[in-house]
Hints:
Elements: E1 2-4, H1 8-20, E2 26-28, H2 31-40, E3 46-49, H3 57-67, E4 72-76, H4 81-89, E5 94-97, H5 102-118, E6 122-124, E7 127-130, E8 135-138, E9 141-142, H6 147-158, E10 164-165, H7 166-174, H8 183-196, E11 205-208, E12 212-215
Parallel strand pairs: 1-2, 1-3, 3-4, 4-5
Antiparallel strand pairs: 6-7, 7-8, 8-9, 10-12, 11-12
Helix pairs in contact: 2-3, 6-7, 6-8
Amino acid sequence: MLVVEDEPRIARIIELELRHEGLTVTIAREGQAGMTLALEGDFDLVILDWMLPGYSGLDICRALRKDKRTPIIILTAKDSLGDKVLGLDAGADDYITKPFETEELLARVRAALRRGQSRELIRFADLYMYPEERRALRAGQTLELTAREFDLLHALVRHAEKVLTREAILSQVWGYQFDGETNVVDVYIRYLRLKVDEPFATSLIHTVRGVGYVLRKP
């Protein structure tokens, strides 16, 4: 869990309570550090104070929502209806006003974690796929995939480290009734590599000559 809070006493209270619940906690005391950790880290939940030195909690929330579905709770002294609406519209999952009772905070944390766990996530190396949302990210960047490209990548991820023949890919992605040429797989693999591999430093999609394709960690 990531807690971005600039008031040392409040940050310490939250940290102790969450650790008592058996959770691993990272603390950031200002907006720049919070922004970096939120975007580059792999957290199950982020608790954001609104008013922070540097980037505000709202800035971090909006940036995080561009690429990740991490549950977010905004914690702030701002208690007007307009502020709550602004926070939720920025992408927060919940909103708690200061002062708060630790029991309520922990209950909301547990609820946010349950909601986050209900969303299917498939992770392979720095590749994240959310099948229900048909979203894919690599190294925190959203991949703009067509429907067929997404299905192809999904098939490769579900069988990661296992070689899939062209025929197996055709049956899983195009369907058993597909009567076209198997080279359509090669064409779409090229499309996929342009988006999944080429913009990044390492390749995940590998060719096994005479057989098919496999997703392998760098």
